[in-house]
Fold each of these.
Amino acid sequence: MIAKIMSRVILFLFVFMLSLAGVSLSQTASQTPPAWLVPGAETEVSWLGSKTSTRVAIPENFTADRVWPVLCYFHGTGGQASTSMMRRFTRQRDYIIVGMSYAVPGAGSLAADAVQKQINHIARVRELLSKHVALQARTFVGGFSKGGWMSDLLATRGFPTLAGALIMGAG
């Protein structure tokens, strides 16, 4: 009887510690992985219902038993969602990279509501990824030119789960 109670307490503590670490246990072995969840592959995904593109790159060293960091990369003005620059920097290892589209198309805005829309957009991406992959609790953002500017806005305007920002070529 005591052994049964102790095993339940240990299981509870294990699940509790995983939740503190930001690990999701929603994925089960019986779930079929989506077509985009291929180690070393970059895939355009349309799960956001958006007219713009979102791309997901799964690292070559991907395994389902690991908790993964996410790096959301924003392209420059006139560009399209891409993961290629960040895949080169990471050598296609250790990060799930998301080539982001902009929640508010156009030249960009400093308005608080525009930044909040981008934060919400990242949250939706994370929510959808977390249905299939265990993710770290915080998100890296990065970008070049306009994307660097967006990364700076997210870093300085209160993105609540920011791990770090890579600001490149933003002037």
Note: The longest helix spans residues 2-20.
Amino acid sequence: MEHSMAKVTLTMTTHVPVSTGEAWAWSTSLEGVRTEMRPLLKVVFPRAMTHIGPDTALNTVLGRCQFLLFGLFPIDMSKLRFTEMEPGHRFVEESDLLSMRSWRHERVITASADGRGAQITDHLAFTPRLATPVVRYLVKLFFAHRHKKLTQALGAGAATVQRRGEAGQAR
């Protein structure tokens, strides 16, 4: 039973040939988030929400988000909550999800070491309610999909996606 409730950590990094400002604008636009998720998931944001930014209330539930598989079938619901925000650099989302005992998603944007573009890194830490190995695999696939969409949307035809597993080990 303990294995089914194990905490999972995943990290994925993508290089994109845009400025950190452009990467931040993409990452905090609702359309950017929607594009990264499509066509696998459609997210329905709270009606009053227009963006994620410095004026986003922290440590407050902003509303409910619904996740629809292929845009049709409801598969999860969250109470959207951001806990940390460093505009232009990073945000942390810790939402209550029906499918997870805990969920933490941190997105960090930094300048590439070579000065040509930006690095977008997603750090995930979560504890599924059921079937940890299956959920870990599905979340890993889903974020690989999101990073592929990042490269397509931000013009990174030759970008590489670095995947990391538990404890930061390259996978």
Note: Strands lie at 8-16, 41-44, 63-69, 73-80, 82-86, 90-93, 96-97, 100-111, 118-128, 161-164.
